[in-house]
Amino acid sequence: MRDETIEIRTLSTLGEIPAADWDACACPEAADAGRPHDPFTTHRFLKALEDSGSVGPGTGWEPHYLTARRGDEVIAVAPLYAKGHSQGEYIFDHNWAHAYERAGGRYYPKLQIAVPFTPATGRRLLVRPGHEDAGRAALLQGATQIAADAGLSSVHVTFCTAKEAEAGAAAGMLHRVTEQFHWHNRDYADFDAFLADLSSRKRKTIRKERREANAFGGEIRMLTGDDLRPEHWEAFWTFYQDTGARKWGRPYLTRAFFDLAQERLRDDILLVMAERAGDWVAGAMNLIGRDTLFGRYWGCAEHHPCLHFEACYYRAIDFAIERGLARVEAGAQGEHKLARGYLPAEIHSLHWMAEPGFAEAVGRYLEAERRAVEQDIEVLTAYGPFRKANVEERE
User: Fold this and answer.
1) CA distance 266 to 228
2) Is the pLDDT of residue 98 over 60?
3) 3-class secondary-structure state, position 364
């Protein structure tokens, strides 16, 4: 008779679980040398964060990777972290933390099922095929039980899929809906075919921005796989440091992460690098999924008009069209993306609060927020850059 008992364990390092066992849950679609739906939950990506010191002691991201076993088989895993702050999450709960602590509670540490520093939607409850319902339930129950036993304030599952959000809500967790801006490929033959979908005014604006960007006096290179070299990462680290210092106070990723990216992740990465007079002057980093390009970081050593739009948004669209990818996720926030063909999309997260009164208050807030987000998405889509007939088709 099959053993139905599921055992939950936490691991302090991914070195405690073979990559094959983790990836059998995280990206089973890549088992035959295929590309994962997204690289972010793969053993190689999360291990690079850990090995580079980007997560771990002193970072506020303490790994407690969650595993669910049925007998000798790992049937589900999740990237679980104890958080000492709310940085690098992009589903903002700072106001919740302040309210909780003003009421005399201790909000941190909390538990977070997430990919650190990565506002990209994907599976967070990683389940081996054939164990979906039992695996998801075990991970959610395990995370909340760990928090309850340790007296922690909350558990958060961020940038999960809509299906996971539905399962979590059915299990009693609070479901939050926020928004991002994504570009969708309607089987465009090329960039001009995409432009033909836009209103005349937006089409002219984008063509003008692309002309200005490409007049910076140099060349823009699209680099992935074996085309990537250590020199590219040395330059990109400079760009990343500048952006990190301005946005977050200090960079989230360490310099060592980019060395490991060259070693382990270069087939997952697209760098868009601008070179002028023999020097790298700007760059954008993207991660390549099975059907999505995920924009992650941008930085520059020199300012040139519209170069940011070209490197981050328009070259990403070029790449997606060339590779036949279904969409581009250009990262967190930014209504300026709307004018460049990126439409609003719902983003899902789940939240469990230990204190019932606080959970009730957050639940009321989330209901009001969800209605506001739904209205915002409706309005922004209607007033977006696409010709009216095409907007009606999308609806």
Assistant:
1) 7
2) yes
3) helix
Question: How many C-beta atoms surround the C-beta of residue 227 within 10 A?
Answer: 12
Q: Is the pLDDT of residue 395 over 80?
A: no
Instruction: Give me the chain's average pLDDT, please.
Output: 94
Whether the CB-CB separation of 181 and 337 falls below 8 Å is answered with: yes
Collapsing DSSP to helix, strand or coil, 216 comes out as coil
Question: Reduced to 3 states, what is the DSSP secondary structure of residue 178?
Answer: strand
β-sheet with 65-70: strand ranges across: 6-11, 65-70, 73-78, 126-127
DSSP 312-358: IIIHHHHHHHHHT-SEEE--S--GGGGGGTPEEEEEEEEEEESSHHH
Please check whether residue 124 is in contact with residue 24, taking contact to mean a CB–CB distance below 8 angstroms: no
Percent over 90 (pLDDT), the chain: 91
- Return d(Cα 82, Cα 112) in angstroms, integer: 6
**pTM check: above 0.85:** yes
Q: Does the pLDDT at position 227 exceed 60? A: yes
What are the structure tokens assigned to 181, written together?
């801006």
Find the mean pLDDT for residues 252-275: 97
Start-to-end Cα distance in the chain: 50
